[in-house]
Amino acid sequence: MRAEQHRVADDGAKQAARLKVGFVLSRSFTLSAFALFVDTLRLASDEQDRSGRVLADWQVIGSTRHLITSSCGVQVAPTSDFVDPSRFDYIVVVGGLLTVENPVDQQTITFLRQADAKKVPLIGVCTGSFILAEAGLMKRHESCVSWLHYKEFRERFPELAVRSDRLFNLDRQRGSCAGGSSAADMAALLVRKYISRDAERNALEVLQIEKARTPSDIQPRRPLYDDYDDARVKAAMITMEQFVDGSMPIEKLAAMVGLSRRQLERIFIEKTGMSPAKAYNRVRMERAKSILAQSKAPLIEIALDVGFENASQFTRTFKRTFGQTPSQHRAAALRAH
């Protein structure tokens, strides 16, 4: 081989992608989650936004090359058929609307199971964790989902561990992500691990993201109550919402955030001005208030959902909390719309 050919071969070796990701897009997938994940890889793979696949490479893989329609109507074409999954460092499943039946076909499920058999890590982004769970691929793994989808995940997969107080989880064989902007945070972690911190920094700067968040960061959300600055209070209140039927004992709630009941009560009084029990009641009433404004569900159904035995008890508590009955609140909400 001539010297020039040696140089070309060396350059090719230096530019071999250090991180290879295959994307599986579900029907009605969330475009923003996919775009943020793949753009983080793109910007980390090259310098100065030149979009070269130098340090990372990615493919949208599918059972066909048919266009896949996202939940917002934009369509994306797969760039690769299903190939040996071991060609990738990660397979990322991007979910979307939960109302879609059969979000992926059986060939896709088979491919994901093959990836699992070959020890290729699988990541569920947005509701992609639902797809992995449905395929039996989240056993012995904790799924991280958006707080919007927590209740449905528990109902569909009661035997699986799930949480909605964090942005994402990532271990050696599984990952899951709440979706939205946290897709960029998860991608940034992969970039840092496989490429470099400089590459991560470059990607985030171009995306106008000041700093990558970590798996331990709490999901930013529009809560049903004031946003308190104590992580233990936040985590406790998020758990209250997850058990909005009032079934979570305060003692157990305290233990979940690493405190005794007395310590939790002291922190709640200090940070919120009310006891955990009163805060729990407020969370339940706020959920009821939201359901009343957004649905035509009967009062007894709403009462049962938030942990009351009958509509009259629920009505009294609601009026004591908000100064109007549930019916009055629903009527006012209808007039406002």
From TrEMBL:
The keyword Transcription applies. Residues 234-332 form the HTH araC/xylS-type domain. This is Transcriptional regulator GlxA family with amidase domain. GO terms for molecular function: DNA-binding transcription factor activity; sequence-specific DNA binding. SMART domains: HTH_ARAC. The keyword Cell wall biogenesis/degradation does not apply. It comes from Rhizobium lentis. Keywords: DNA-binding, Transcription, Transcription regulation. Transmembrane segments: none annotated. PANTHER family: ARAC-FAMILY TRANSCRIPTIONAL REGULATOR, HTH-TYPE TRANSCRIPTIONAL REGULATOR RV1931C.
